[in-house]
Structures are given as structure tokens and as C-alpha cells.
Specification:
By secondary structure, this protein is mostly helical. It is built from eight helices and no strands.
Length: about 210
């Protein structure tokens, strides 16, 4: 990567970091592009032309900020899957905490009722495409190891679909549960963790119906 490309990536990330902080404080609707431009460059501001060199619009910036947020949580979840010094139960609990926290933090971008439609419209892309799909390979490996070591029960389902199929079902089911919530913005991280946790344990054969 050339020095110029690295510099461009750094400057683009500065806009993302600045906007993420403002969106978290004031929400998406409560933050204008002018606010972001003025707060950029360490509070010194930049010209609008500099901003538009990196982003097409406010919506483009919002997507970049949320992708960055989701990416950080995906890395946290992958780190949990890759941690060999924990039990399978601890792994599940730790992943659920990460998912719940990602849910809670994303809500900060859309604090008002007027912004809930925007939240719902972006949900599938963020939670399914960006988060769940990115953790599937690590989840598959963790499930395969847990099954091989006897930390997870070998059920008829796991025999039929294997670790990869279980991972796909877990991701699809989790996204469906979250999508079906009547009012996603009002749901707390603890509620999401409880609902998803019940589904995960039932699918993996850790609890009886």
C-alpha cells in the first residue's frame, strides 16, 4: 500500500471516528454534516470539498460508521470463538454479551422515534450481512471442536447438518428473532441476550423444550 493510500485511509477513518462520536451523543438526526465537518481535523474543521472526496453523502458516512462499529464487534466475537481457555458454556455466554452490546450501541445512533424506521431499514444489512456472516467461519470451527471434544451433545440435527449447518442455522435464527421484535429500538441488550440465548441453547441441544 502506498503512503498516499495509507494517508487517504487515515483521513477517511478520522471522519468516521468523529461522526461515530457525534452520532453516539446526538443521534443521526441530531447531527448534521456541518457538525461533522466542523469537528473533524481535531476540532479545526475542514472544507466541505475534503469531506466529499471521501464520502458521497451523509447516508454514505452513516453506513461507514455503522460498518466500522459492527466490524469491531465482529472481531470481538471472533476472538471469543478463538479462545481455547474457556468452556463451551462460557463461550456462548461471552458471545451473547458481545451481541447484546453491539445491539445496544447501534441503538445510540437512532435514539428518537422518528429514527426507528432508519434503524429497521439498515438492520438486515448490518446484523446479517456485516456481523453474522463475518463470524460464521470462526463459529463453525468452534462448534466443530466442541462437538469433537464432547462439550456439545451430538444430536440428530448436528449429525445431519454438521458444524457449518449449525452455524448457518444459528445466524439465520438469530437474525429472524431480532427482525421479528415488535419495536427493536425499545429492546434492551439483556432482552436480546435472553431471547437469542434461549434459541441458541435449544438448537445446540443444551436445554430441553
Amino acid at each position: 500500500m502506498t503512503a498516499r493510500k495509507k494517508d487517504n485511509l487515515r483521513k477517511r477513518q478520522e471522519f468516521i471516528d468523529t461522526a461515530t462520536e457525534l452520532f453516539g451523543q446526538y443521534g443521526v438526526d441530531g447531527t448534521s454534516l456541518r457538525d461533522v465537518i466542523k469537528a473533524s481535523n481535531g476540532g479545526k474543521g475542514v472544507s466541505p470539498s475534503v469531506f466529499y472526496y471521501y464520502f458521497d453523502s451523509k447516508d454514505d458516512l452513516i453506513n461507514a460508521c455503522m460498518d466500522s462499529y459492527i466490524g469491531s464487534y465482529a472481531r470481538s466475537i471472533i476472538a471469543v470463538f478463538d479462545d481455547d481457555g474457556q468452556s463451551t458454556q462460557d463461550m456462548i455466554d461471552n458471545v451473547l454479551v458481545c451481541v447484546g452490546q453491539a445491539w445496544e450501541d447501534l441503538k445510540e445512533f437512532f435514539p428518537s422515534a422518528n429514527e426507528r424506521e432508519d434503524w429497521v431499514s439498515r438492520f438486515d444489512r448490518l446484523f446479517v450481512d456485516a456481523l453474522l456472516s463475518s463470524i460464521t467461519p470462526s463459529m463453525t470451527q468452534a462448534l466443530a471442536k466442541a462437538l469433537d471434544q464432547g462439550d456439545l451433545p451430538v444430536t440428530q440435527l448436528s449429525r445431519q447438518v454438521g458444524p457449518g449447518g449449525l452455524a448457518a442455522l444459528l445466524c439465520t435464527g438469530t437474525s429472524t428473532i431480532c427482525r421479528q421484535l415488535r419495536d427493536p429500538v425499545s429492546q434492551s441488550a439483556q432482552q436480546v441476550e435472553m431471547l437469542v440465548g434461549t434459541f441458541v441453547r435449544q438448537l445446540l441441544g443444551l436445554v430441553q423444550d
